[in-house]
Amino acid sequence: MFKATPNPPKTDSFSATLDAKKFREAADRALDHYLKPNSHHLHAPKDRAMQMFTVSPKANPQAITIQTYETFSSVNILLLDLAESLEDKPRHLAMAIYQLSEMGLLLVEKTLESEPAVTGV
């Protein structure tokens, strides 16, 4: 049987025209984007594009605990002030958040109690 069109030219495999590894990585990223939309949030902090705050790996653990206590104390005051200006459901929500932060404050206090006292140098 005679063909009216010639056979296509012989070419190397697919990997010759495109880098197969790069193509596979791009395809995986695209599939993950659509099939696992929240998976990019689960990566390590170094992968986050908007990393604004960091804790120094050399930071003194006791200093971190003290700073955590101060942060919880500030949050508690802000929430109480906010709750005073709200009514009904929003007020209950603010008070629930306040109670959670108060629980965090109590946990940090317990941690500080178990720490040895710091002496001045």
UniProtKB/TrEMBL annotation:
Q: Name one Pfam family in it.
A: DUF6124
Q: Which domain of life is it from?
A: Bacteria
Which protein are we looking at? Answer: DUF6124 family protein
